[in-house]
């Protein structure tokens, strides 16, 4: 059975759904149904029970200053080959060194596929563990973020210190 963990962070409540040792979805909410809706239907668990996880410990470590702690957490998403490559590439962006959507598209080998790069970020379910917040508009502005631009700004500020 999948587990739902919730913890308080400097950016508000953070929750995650984990199944078989991998995070399926996470974000700054305490609404389990909101998180479940972000999971691809082929992976979406029927039942979710409260529980603790190593992933929650990694979030605590991240907020405690260990920005690399989230990288060790396993995640599982379902998507196209391009989306899978994109999600893995997001995990390689160094904290404090965000990319623009154009740079992210180029890193995927498709420099003109800026909309596809933005879509990869938008469809990312395990936020923080797959740090889509590290991608910005070409002019350096924040762009969108499923959990709100104030959270995105706080994450980027934390990582730039």
Question: How does this structure look, described?
Answer:
- This protein is α/β, with parallel strands linked by helices.
- The chain folds into two domains: about 1-70, Double Stranded RNA Binding Domain; about 80-160, Arc Repressor Mutant, subunit A.
- The protein is about 35% helix and about 20% strand.
- The strands form two sheets. Strands 3-2-1-4 form a four-stranded mixed sheet, with helices on both faces. A two-stranded parallel sheet has the order 5-6.
- A hairpin with a 2-residue loop joins strand 2 and strand 3 (about 20-25).
- It is globular.
Q: Pairing-aware structural class of the strands and helices?
A: alpha/beta
| Fourth CATH level, the homologous superfamily of the largest domain | Winged helix-like DNA-binding domain superfamily/Winged helix DNA-binding domain
Average of the residue pLDDT scores? 96
CATH architecture annotation name of the largest domain: Orthogonal Bundle
Percent of residues in beta strands: 15-25%
DSSP strand count: 6
- Which sequence of SSEs, written as H and E, runs from N to C? EEEHEHHEHHEH
Tell me the span between the first and last alpha carbons: 38 Å
> Unreliable runs, pLDDT <50, ≥5 residues?
none
Shape: globular
> Helical content, roughly?
25-40%
CATH C-level class of the largest domain:
Mainly Alpha
Write down the Rg. 15 Å
Helical element count? 6
Number of domains: 2
| CATH topology annotation of the largest domain | Arc Repressor Mutant, subunit A
> Which sheet architecture does the biggest sheet show?
4 strands, mixed
């Amino acid at each position: 059975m999948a587990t739902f963990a919730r913890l308080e962070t400097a950016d508000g409540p953070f929750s995650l759904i984990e199944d078989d040792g991998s995070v399926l979805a996470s974000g700054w909410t305490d609404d389990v149904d909101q998180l479940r809706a972000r999971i691809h239907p082929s992976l979406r668990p029927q039942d979710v029970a409260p529980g603790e996880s190593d992933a929650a410990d990694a979030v605590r470590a991240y907020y405690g200053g260990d920005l690399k702690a989230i990288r060790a957490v396993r995640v599982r998403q379902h998507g196209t080959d391009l989306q899978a490559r994109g999600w893995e590439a997001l995990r390689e962006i160094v904290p404090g060194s965000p990319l623009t959507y154009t740079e992210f598209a180029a890193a995927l080998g498709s420099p003109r596929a800026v909309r596809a790069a933005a879509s990869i970020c938008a469809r990312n379910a395990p936020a923080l563990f797959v740090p889509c917040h590290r991608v910005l508009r070409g002019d350096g502005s924040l762009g969108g973020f499923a959990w709100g631009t104030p959270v995105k700004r706080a994450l980027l500020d934390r990582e730039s210190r």
